[in-house]
Sequence to fold (294 residues):
Amino acid sequence: MAHILQVGAGSGGAVVLDLLAREPSVNRVSLIEFDVYESHNVYRHLFPASSIGRLKAELAAEWVRGFRSDLVVKPVIADITDPSRQTEFAQIAAKCDIGVCAVDNEQAKHAFDSLMRVAGKPWTLGEVLSGGIGGWVHRFVPGGPCYGCVASHLQREVKEQQDTPPPDYSNPGGAIPETTVSANKASISVIASLHASATLEMLKDPSPSPLPQGEMGLNPAPPSFPGKGDGGLGSSETSLLFSLAKVPGVFDEAFRSYRFRIPRSPSCLICGSAAVPQGDLDVALGEALDRLGT
Ligand SMILES: [Zn+2]
Fold:
């Protein structure tokens, strides 16, 4: 039986949660989300207009209990980046089997990454690209690359190729609102479904041999972005990119998958050999975010 710790119950996160909660092997969910359901959420969400003004975490918990009365769902009304709640989050993370990240801002992703690495638990991340042209599913294992490794690697790859729209797990209020084009519900659901599938796959095999530090030179180079690839996440891939539209200069065609094997970076300020002690992690995180230009 599995305990899932999920952060984010937006239009993508709610779909991921809905799918995971239908698995009999999942018996407990802790859901961190502080957001309130608003009128602009209605047409892409599971919940009716009559729910406007209520907390998304509580709406999601009620939704899941509607078909899984045996499932223990605990809404945690909090911001994952809130320093005053980290002890409580760490206690939940220590008890969970896997983490699920469905938030659309960088600070929250880094905060969840830190939480899961300290707890030594695997986790997954889904990201819908702006406009819903495709999306990412990443998975992280203890000892493997951290979110900072993956994000900085992909940013370098993308810069060398083409500018792609920024990730947006769906919603106005994404990290870069002025460049964020809302994705439609179909695109959000496809990526959320892949995210749920990858999470269930990891629950079956939680530690698919992380790439050891120092071996990245021996690994085959990841395909050039967007590159060629096929299939789902294999045992050693960290990231899956799935196209949902043909976009000149970005995706050659719709409905193609690209797999990336992203190594842990020895120079990563968060998890590499240059990493600072945990007590100074906030400083390192700030520096890493500055480097990423977020
Ligand atoms: Zn790292």
In short: The longest strand covers residues 26-32. Strands lie at 2-7, 26-32, 72-76, 98-101, 123-128, 134-140, 239-243, 257-260. The radius of gyration is 18 Å. Residues 172-179, 210-232 have pLDDT under 50 and may be disordered.
